[in-house]
Specification:
Number of helices: 29
Structural class: alpha+beta
Number of strands: 36
Distance between the termini: 46 Å
Radius of gyration: 31 Å
């Protein structure tokens, strides 16, 4: 039995100093020097002692190579180069990693090019399947580790060593968002946490935490109208062990507790009772008045606002006050510094120093532009054009804006907007148009757009969601002018950015248009022989095309004509729909018809009445509204008022009835769910669905997650139900047995999406290092663009004094000066299908024990291997491996370690 001493820190009431986290930029050509700089910035020798042995924890998520999945050999090599150069004895360094039910440690050592590095530096390698695991006595009871595994053990070989982790950056899945009354969309956890931080909170007997406030949110009234109501109470509730994930035909999806009610045609029904094929209510139009928003300020050439009589000139050795005033006036009236210097008989630098002294901006070398003070229709029309067809390049101290289109009307309009909005003269190069402006580049960053602005990472500025409908229409119109098409089946908008497609789907609700999202694989139009890449499409069908046509004002004449023709045919035709139908109860419909004395024939639509009553088809909104009109006129004594009102609510123009396409029970990986209490209506709109309560969760891998392979053996799958608490317990275990800990997080290539083995690799060119694993993961969440409050392992670890997650207590050193300067890569979390498929079994009683605690554990293991190795890698992953190895310099560097 190993008995460790107590851990110092705020866990026992002591003050913790500022934590230093080094973050540096890097390239394949400079990575080894950059690792040296990184470690020096992080003062690693203060934490990693030469007097004791060092254990380097590698990260193996796949025996096969896949970008961003496992420790890269050049990071491993760079660390060893630096340590040995600084006097560490290679004989005292051991690399360690474990085997899992889905990886083979020996295959992974060769598959990920670790073996050549081990051989080069002559360091020992310990597969932890060969380690001696012994019991460990911890200074306090664990949160869940003992209850889950029944014992606390660790490999004896790493006791009292420096432990260095080499994780990579990757993440899991997204959060639920709700509509606020001002048009903005915000995560519910952010709203609740903000309210709890500012107001008095009360803990109920059931351990719910609640605070009062008054936020206005979008809600569905009792008369089926989309309106705004006050949310008065904000709840944080301990989470259950599992959740229900519901997905719909229009690509909506939410994760909720089993008790969470959805609005169905007959009643509010709990998520645990929802079936595939069920219809649930979604908003058709979000009513927001909106107002023009203040745009970020930019530096301006302040000459027109300078009043020289207001300036207090101070006489100098060379110039009198009068001379200085004359110099300023000459310059702001258009003379150059060279002309002024010649006239005064002075050196030009003396003239420039005077101008700087009195705050007169120079015209030299700066493309001064202007921007509107507030958003306008024209501003958003320009933004729609640019986000559809443009991109930026940062080089030479400026930002170049490129835009490409061949339609003369769009070209003329774009050039006109550049001149009138910004005072910019656009230049032409072949079929593209460009201008340079560092000021406008910074302005785009201030709007929240990540630079460089490229097709795959484009987003809509958050300001637009709060703007008037006319400004939203202008943006949608010009974006469609660029990236939209109208064909026989409907309207389609295509983008390489999944985020912008999601945002457009939300914005379309402001003009009463419901759309569908889907993913396609295609080659770039301008590069026919290019690799297949994922693109995202927004589809608009049926009557929604008519609503769309009535709301947009297209500049592209051919597209406008096609859209008008489609809408005209739709209005003049029978207007069938295979999805936007009204789920009227056949028995109630027949009861009203017969009770009012109508035969099917006398209603004037005999075939429609027959189809409804016999369940042959589900009627469209116009058909139902026709029957409501004749029934209401005949019901003079209000005998069927209740039934007719129900039909009115079902066929309301404000809502649509979406089709549930999947219902899955999934593990709950977060400690809390979040709820709002909305006055009168008790519902709000979350992820585009009308909800009573909702939640979201986020998980990212990183330094803490890297502990999985160090302390948990092949039964680590048992930890997933309480993953955040397990990771915090493992951190306590590590602090108990280690001499010190250090982490070097590799962000040279990052994994975006469903991890760890089905991600899209993205070049990150960044590395993180620190002795605080919690701080390392905190900085990683910032770089990934995740909400830190949703990564609950960080909150829990900080509360227990095991690390620091408060940005105010983290000092950023290296190539960035402050927390705010860190890059934001806007990574998109997700889960691989095999994980979701395996977890579907867990909804059956006893399945968790049967699958994970019995010989049947081979089933999910085999499913994982079959999917990842036999299906996903050959069909999708192979192209990303090829891209990384053949088209990126990081891939070339990785391949240079291959065993020849």
């Amino acid at each position: 039995m190993y008995h460790a001493g107590l851990i110092a820190g705020s866990m026992y009431g002591e003050m913790i100093p500022m934590v230093k986290v080094a973050v540096v930029k890097t390239t394949p050509k400079t990575v080894y020097d950059d690792i040296g700089r990184l470690l020096d910035h992080a003062e690693y020798q203060k934490h990693v002692s030469k007097d004791v042995a060092t254990s380097i924890k590698l990260n193996l998520s796949w025996s096969k190579f896949y970008p961003a999945c496992s420790t890269n050999p050049y990071i491993f090599d760079g660390l060893l180069r630096k340590m040995i150069a600084d006097g560490f004895d290679n004989r005292s360094i051991t690399a360690v990693e474990n085997e899992t039910v889905v990886t083979n440690i020996y295959a992974g050592t060769h598959g990920n090019n670790w073996y050549p590095v081990l051989k080069k530096h002559r360091i020992k390698f310990l597969p932890l399947i060969n380690a001696t695991y012994v019991d460990v006595k911890l200074p306090r009871k664990t949160l869940v580790l003992e209850d889950t595994f029944g014992e606390i053990i660790a490999p004896k070989e790493i006791f009292n060593t420096n432990i260095i982790h080499l994780p990579t950056i990757k993440c899991c899945h997204p959060e639920t968002e709700i509509f606020l009354a001002d048009g903005s969309v915000q995560k519910i956890c952010e709203i609740v946490d903000e309210v709890h931080s500012k107001n008095e909170v009360v803990v109920t007997d059931e351990c719910d935490v609640v605070a009062k406030s008054n936020h206005r949110v979008i809600s569905l009234s009792k008369t089926a109208e989309i309106t705004d109501k006050v949310a008065g109470k904000f709840w944080r509730t301990p989470s259950p062990s599992s959740l229900i994930e519901v997905k719909t035909r229009t690509s909506k999806h939410v994760k909720v507790s089993k008790r969470h009610p959805f609005l169905t045609p007959t009643c509010w029904k709990k998520a645990g009772e929802i079936d595939v094929g069920e219809r649930i209510a979604i908003p058709r139009r979000i009513h927001v008045e909106g107002r023009s928003q203040k745009l970020p300020d930019i530096p301006t050439l302040n000459h027109p606002n300078i009043v020289t009589s207001d300036i207090v000139f101070v006489e100098s050795a060379k110039f009198s006050c009068k001379q200085q005033k004359k110099i300023v006036e000459d310059y702001i009236h258009g003379k150059t510094t060279t002309e002024i210097a010649k006239g005064a008989g002075e050196h030009v630098e003396a003239i420039r120093r005077i101008l700087i002294k009195y705050g007169v901006n120079s015209r030299r070398g700066i493309n001064w532009v202007r921007v509107p003070e507030y958003t306008t229709d024209d501003f958003w029309r320009w933004m729609g054009y640019f986000l559809a067809e443009g991109y930026t390049q940062d080089s030479g101290g400026t930002t170049r804006f490129w835009w490409t289109n061949t339609n003369k009307d769009l070209i003329d309009d774009y050039i006109h907007l550049c001149e009138t909005l910004f005072g910019i003269q656009v230049k032409k190069k072949k079929i593209s148009y460009y201008f340079d402006s560092k000021i406008l580049g910074n302005f785009m960053s201030d709007l929240g757009l990540s630079r460089p602005i490229v097709s795959g990472s484009k987003t809509v500025p958050d300001l637009l969601f709060k703007c008037p409908t006319s400004e939203i229409q202008s943006f949608i119109s010009s974006y469609f002018d660029g990236d939209g098409t109208c064909v026989k089946d409907g309207v389609h908008i295509t983008s390489k950015s999944m985020k912008i497609i999601q945002q457009l789907q939300t914005l379309l609700l402001r003009i009463g248009v419901i759309s569908f999202k889907r993913e396609i694989w295609s080659r770039a139009k301008n590069v026919p022989e290019s690799e297949l890449n994922p693109y995202y499409v927004l589809d608009i069908y049926g009557d929604d095309v008519t609503f769309f046509s009535n709301s947009v004002n297209l500049c592209h004449k051919k597209k406008a004509a096609k859209l008008e023709q489609f809408a005209k045919r739709r209005i003049e035709g029978k207007r069938p729909s295979n999805w936007d139908t009204i789920p009227i109860n056949p028995q109630i419909f027949k009861k009203v018809r017969c009770g009012l004395g109508f035969t099917q024939q006398s209603t004037g639509k005999a075939s429609s009445a027959n189809n409804i009553e016999n369940g042959l088809t589900v009627p469209t909104r116009p058909i139902v509204q026709y029957f409501i009109k004749i029934f209401q006129k005949a019901d003079t004594d209000n005998q069927f008022a209740e039934e007719i009102d129900m039909m009115k609510r079902l066929s309301s123009e404000e809502i649509a009835w979406d089709h549930v396409v999947s219902v899955d029970e999934i593990e709950c990986e977060v400690p809390y769910l979040y709820d709002l209490s909305v006055e009168e209506t008790n519902n709000f709109v979350g992820n585009g669905v009308i909800l009573h309560n909702t939640h979201g969760h986020t998980q990212m891998t990183g330094a803490l997650k890297d502990s999985f392979g160090l302390y948990l053996t092949k039964n680590r799958h048992l930890a997933h139900l309480k993953i955040h608490e397990v990771l915090v317990d493992l951190l306590l275990l590590q602090k108990t047995i280690s001499h010190s800990e250090f982490v070097l997080t590799d962000g040279t290539v990052m994994g975006d999406g469903a991890g760890p083995r089905t991600m899209v690799p993205k070049i990150g060119n960044i590395m993180i290092a620190t002795n605080d694993m919690v701080a390392a993961d905190t900085v990683q969440t910032r770089i990934m663009g995740l909400d830190q409050n949703r990564v609950h392992k960080l909150q829990i670890a900080t509360e227990l004094g095991l690390g620091e997650s408060n940005p105010e207590n983290i000092e950023i050193v290296g190539d960035f000066e402050a927390w705010e300067d860190l890059p934001n890569h806007h990574m998109s979390p997700g889960k691989s299908p095999v994980i979701t498929w395996n977890r579907g079994f867990l909804k059956f009683p006893g399945m968790e024990t049967l699958l994970f605690r019995s010989p049947l554990m081979w089933l999910p293991t085999q499913l994982s291997g079959l999917y990842h190795d036999g299906i996903w890698l050959p069909l999708k992953g192979k192209k990303w491996v090829k891209w990384f190895l053949e088209e990126t310099e990081w891939g070339e560097l990785w391949d240079s370690y291959s065993e020849k």
